[in-house]
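Late entry, flavin-adenine dinucleotide complex.
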Amino acid sequence: MTEQLSTDVLICGAGAAGLTLAIDLARRGVSFRLVEKMNEPFRGSRGKGIQPRTQEIFKDLGILDRIVAAGGDYPKERLYRGDGSYVDSRITEHVDPTPSEPFQQPLMVPQFLTEAVLRERLAEFGYSPEYGTELIGLEQEGDGVTASLQRRGVTEHLRARWLVGADGGRSFVRHALQVGFPGKTLGVRAIVADVTLTGLSRDAWHRFGDGDMSRQIFLCPLAGTDMFQIQGPIPMEGDIDLSAAGLGQLVAERTGRDDIHIHDVSWASAYTMNARLADQYRVGQVLLIGDAAHIHPPTGGQGLNTSVQDAYNLGWKIAAVIDGAPEVLLHSYEEERRPIAAEMLGLATRLLHAQHRDGIRRGREVKQLDIAYSGSSLTLEVPARTGELFAGDRAPDALLLGASGQPRYLFDLLQGPHWTLIGYQVAHRDSVPPRKGLHIHTMGTRGDVIDEHGHFREAYDVEEGSWVLIRPDGYIGAIVEEASTELLEDYLTRAGLPATSAKH
Ligand SMILES: Cc1cc2nc3c(=O)[nH]c(=O)nc-3n(C[C@H](O)[C@H](O)[C@H](O)COP(=O)(O)OP(=O)(O)OC[C@H]3O[C@@H](n4cnc5c(N)ncnc54)[C@H](O)[C@@H]3O)c2cc1C
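Prediction complete; structure with ligand written out below:
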C-alpha cells in the first residue's frame, strides 16, 4: 500500500548529524521528518570526543550542561614500556578558559550518550526519529523530491521540498545521486569495542605496544559508563574474534599481561580507515551532511564534530530558504563546509601517522575554534579589515554587563535561532530597523549592554561606530562602519531578513 504525504524537509539518518539538524529545524518551526533504518538507537561509543567548538554549539542548542553531565574529562595517557613500567602524560595541553573562548578542553562523551541527549532535546520539541524506516528510493522532480520509505514491508511515498542525506559513510543518498566519493583507504584496519573489564584503573587511557604498530592497543575508560573502549590496529585481512574471549586474548597478547579480564562486550566493530570527501554536497533539492559527505580516520576526534557542524551550518539556511530567502543562500553551505572537511581529512590523516610515533597527544588544531568561513559569499567588511578578526570568523564570547547591572555573556545574547546585530558606540541605534529574526543590541551611551571589562573591544577589535552582524550559527557575517549601514540592509535581505513591513 502506498500513500503520498508531504513535508518541507526529509532527514535520512538519525545519527549525530541528522539529530542536530532535526533540533535546529524544530526550534525554527520547520516541518520535517527524521527517518532511521535501524530499529533502535545505535549503541556504540565510537565518536567520543566533543571538541570546544561543538561545546559552544551544544550550548546554543540548550544541551551543553546535559552533555557534560553525561560524560566527563579526558584522562591522562599512560604509556607502558616493554618492562611493564609506565609514564603518564596529558593528552591535551591544559589551557584555562578565556573570556573569548570559554571552552578549552575536549569532553569525553560516548557517542550513544551524546545521541541520547540530542534525542531528549528533540523530544522537547515534540519530535522523535522514526526508527525502522529506510529510505529506499528518491526521485527529483521540479522543486522537490519524492522519497520512497519502507517500514515493516510497507512502502510510503513522501514528497519533500528538501531531502538531507545524513545517512553515514555508506550513504544511500550519495549513491543515489551518483556523487563521487574520492579519497583513499589508509591501509589501516582497526577494532573498536566497548567492554567491561577488570585489571586496569580508570584514571588513565592505557596504551601498550609503543613504537610497534602491529602490537599497539589502547584501553580507554569511557566516561559516563563503567566500560572501557578498546582500540587497536589489526591485520588488513582475516576474521577477527570480537567476543569477550577473543578480545581478551588480543589484549593479553598485546599487553603481555594475564590480569586484564574482559567480562562483557556491549558493542564491537572491525573497520578499515578511509579518508574520503564527496565531490558535491548538493544536487538539486538534495544535500549531504556528516559522514555521508566526508569520512575521516578517528584520530583527533573530528568526525562527529564536523558532522554536527555541517548540520548547524545548514539548518538556518534551509529554514531561511523555506521561509522565502533567496535560494542562492544555500550555495554557501557547500562553499563553506566542503573546504573545512577537506582540511579535517588532512588533519586526521596526519594525526593518524603521528600517533604511530608520538601517541595520542593533541593540540589547538583539533579544537575547531579556528574554523572560519573567510572568503565566503556571506562575508561583508566595510572598510576591509586588517588585524586579527575578520568577517567569516567564529564570533568570540565576551563577558558584558546588562544595562540593568546583571552580568551578560555575549553567547547568551546569541543563544537561539536568531541573527544578532551589535552596534559598538554607534550614534543612531535606529539606523538599522528592527525585523523578524534579528536581535539588535548596542554598547555605549544608552546602550542595553556595557562592555564593562573591555572584553568585546579586545576580542572584536572594532572602531567606535561599527556594526557587527553575527549569524545564527555564531560566525561573523559582517563588520560595517556606521556610514555604510545601508550595505547591511542589502546583506540582511539576501540572508532572508528583509525589513519587516507593518502589520495591522
Ligand atoms: C572508532 C571510531 C572512533 C571515532 N572517534 C571519534 C571522535 O572521537 N570524535 C569524533 O568527532 N568522531 C569520531 N568518530 C567518527 C564519528 O563516529 C562519525 O563521524 C559520526 O558518527 C558521523 O555522524 P553521522 O550522523 O554523519 O553518521 P552516522 O553516525 O553514521 O549516522 C548515520 C545514520 O543513518 C542511518 N541510515 C543509513 N542509511 C539509511 C537509510 N537508507 N535510511 C534511513 N537511515 C539510514 C544509519 O543507520 C545511521 O544511524 C569515530 C568513528 C570511529 C569508527
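The longest strand covers residues 261-277. Will revisit in the morning.
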